[in-house]
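[Automated response] Your request has been received and processed.

Submitted sequence:
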Amino acid sequence: MLPSLWWGLLLLPLPWLLLHRRVWFIPLFFVAGVVWVSFRAGLILQDNLPRELEGENLLVEGRIADIPQQAEFGQRFELEVSRAQREGVAVSVPRRILLNSRDFSFQPRAGETWRLLVRLNRPHGYQNPGGFDYEAYLFQHRLRAKGYVRTEIAPQRLGDGPAWHDINRLRQNLGERIRAPLQDHAHAGIVVALANGDSRGISNEQWQVLRHTGTLHLVAISGLHISLVAGIVFFIARWLWSLPGTTVLRWPAPMFGAVAALLAAGAYAALAGFVIPTQRALIMLTVAMSGILLRRRFPPSQLLAVALFAVLVYDPLAVMAAGFWLSFAAVAVILMAVQGDRAGKSLLYKWGYIQWAIALGMLPLMLAMFQQVSLVAPVANMLAVPVFDLLLVPLTLTGVLLLGVAPDAAGWLFQLAAGLLQWLWPALEFLGQRSFSLWMQPAPAWWALPCAVVGVALLLAPRGWPARWVGAVWLLPLFLIRPPVPAAGELWFTLLDVGQGLAAVVRTRTHALVFDAGPRFGSFDTGSAVVEPYLRSVNVHRLDTLIVSHGDNDHIGGAESVLRALPVAQVLSSVPEELPAAQPCRSGQTWSWDGVDFAMLNPNTAAGSTRANNNSCVLQVRSRYGTVLLPADIEAKTERQLIEQWGNRLRSDVLVAPHHGSKTSSTPEFIETVAPRYVLFPVGYRNRYRHPNPAVAARYLERGITMHDSPTSGALEFHLTAGGLEATAYRTRHRRYWYAD
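Generated structure:
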């Protein structure tokens, strides 16, 4: 939870104490930071969607706040709401909302104002170990509700927004004019991203290459590109100002160059929509240029510290973004790398050393934040950074400047930039496709990160620093400490949060099994977004068995991604024809791992069921410390058959509710026979099926069975050990103040 603003009372005595001892600066800044963060975050949390408005038809008016994103099923855009009504009565909704539309005839443009009929929900996302925190993303971007456009009332365009909103229209028009001469060029999306910050035209395959080669930063308008533009403008403006000779008597050329550089950087940041990374870069540049304007020489470390302070005052929530840590850490590493005596070394050596230093210096952060690091990044950046910074960015921005006066020449420059990318791309693909290009490992222990920072500082210390090699010892915890694993005979079970779907992981001491992989929506699936990151976070690099219970999308959708990501020894399914190298699951199949027994209880070929749900694989996992039953989507008919065939063998401590708690399953007889201590409902937030059915939930409650569901608990972890059954909910254990109540 957020700290109380009553902390602010401590600010009253601290300045007086500071007058007596300077050491009180530390608690003064700490308390001021707590109060400032709490105040700013509290303002965002207050801008919430009232619960009574969730799922209701609302008529809203507002401005398209950014360039709409074309998606597989329509488009996604942000709306800055000016007014909202429900049944003609004014209501309060968040100022900024995220909307989807499946109507391809509805084509809003940035800066336009519209009247729309929408349905909204409060921010909610999957919550799993190792997974992406979508709720944090929405919170950081001040998006306090999301929903979709309804078609009962056609969208009505009300006109263009105020003149000061023209920047986003300009950005959208600029992107379209750049794409026109490039037509369907494979790298048009990257050229557009370098011009206006809109990276949504970059394909998933291209993102993968950039990620595997550690060159993602090159296509984002942030510190690197803004500093480049500012540097070029600074030297050109200083030279032009000094040409007449008399101008420098009125104002020094370096000061004129600094002002011109800041204006150019501000214009480039505006082209990127003033997104948070560009705001950060602009503040850092302003601090750096202040030394020239104030005619004072500041140490680089002092400039970095002042820039860091200024960024946190401007936006204390910037610490939620990985880019905040990576950008400041990269600058700090470069400052360390350029120290020391390297006179006489070639330019290529110095450039290579900086790339090696950045790779080493960023290693702890990359592993802590993403659990992966590119091993080919130094080589890839040695090739790509000069091409991007010396050729692609200048060519693209020169083309932007020429669009209004010489569009043909501008188009030729854009084509030249795209051609350079086409020449560079095979080299990046070659590096990114190496088996060793991306190194993955679980997130390190919290205490290993400061140890690694000490190690990096020692290894990058100037030549002559005593015992620099000890830095390698300080790095060891980063690689040697691994997450705990079950003891022999123990059973660790995790029901992952995949919304309206099912994905579960069973682990013994040396084996791992995945039961279903959640749904797929177009190019997005929970196999790659949830299951794979979770397995990586617990140090599972291969699967002994993948079971896909049946062919419904909410169970099989992510299976292909799991099969691509990890080696899988065995695949079992009731629909083996839909998966490569899969074998049919059959009642009576059994095996044992590390003292834990696995038994398939369904489908029974003799039953001859014609319903796909009733043909689901049903798995029971039994250890000496407890039992887990996964019945997938079976319904009442198969529940009765299981009771007849297996009787009291069905008794289990943990039950995943059949068919997500549908009214067609969880019969009283089945519940009595299984007699679980816990029942788990793998359902989506405010799902359209309204699972779990109230009558079904009441049956479990009447018997005193503890109930958990995915929306309120996130991933549910059960450790069945000699000490008993330990149950933890990820949303509780990993609680954050921005989570939905």
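Summary generated for your ticket: The chain has a mean pLDDT of 91. The longest strand covers residues 74-86.
If you did not submit this request, please reply to this message.
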